[in-house]
Predict the 3D structure of the following.
Amino acid sequence: MVEIQPLDIADPIRTQAILRRYGFQFKKSLGQNFLTNKAVLNGILDAADLQPTDLVVEIGPGIGSLTEQLARRVKQVVAVEIDERLLPILADTLAPYNNIEVVHQDILKTSLAELTANYPDHGAIKVVANLPYYITTPIMFSLINGEVQPDVLVLMMQKEVAQRITANSGNKHYGSLSIDVQTQMTAEIAQIVPRTSFVPQPNVDSAVLVLQRYQHSPYQIDHPEMFSTIVKSSFQQRRKSLQNNLANLFGKDKREQITQIITELDLPAQVRAEQLPIQKFIDLSNACFTTFTSKRSK
């Protein structure tokens, strides 16, 4: 007799069967939307460029749709799930796999060092996640700036947020979020994901964002605190000129020095923040540090 193989967890028929069996009710407060589109799932796997030796940390496995696919391709998967109600479901759906550890934790209250400590013999560390919309950026930056820094992040998020992260100067989506991420990692949208790919269906479309850490960063930031302050202040009021935003930061009495800095950087007098590429922001922060900090300390 031929043994009938079960459908993948991500198959809409099996997903609905699992949800019915456990009487699972979605929590809006946790931003729960389970992926049921196999093409999108394959796109995520391709974007992660998975290798057999990889250690993958998955955030928010849900009922295991993506987790199952990851386990078939890599050495070890550590799946972090905050919703206790999903633990018995995951124990059932992922029972055939011996290379998955499900951890009941809040990813914002743990570290990759803790999650990966038991698996020292691995290749690259990669993070794959279908992030809740309401805490996308806190989770992303906790991963980018954490003690253990993954080589690759493949993150499902709201399309608009992904567009802001990947935007370049001159684009309406370009802002401090774009710069904060791109000074540390390359950022690329791998695919746009229609809202119909999820159960339940969210109100907006999503995107798969791929972040890869620079092997050799193109940016040297000598004064990170000044750089961060300049970038944040420059986009505080987007419609205002860079000159006016800097005057609000350093004081109206410094307008003449600010005008001189802008001129020396070969920028138009009424240039706005969204027109400045990242390197120009670095040059600007260096000039402001020299003009307003070094002189004041003497």
The chain has twelve helices and nine strands.
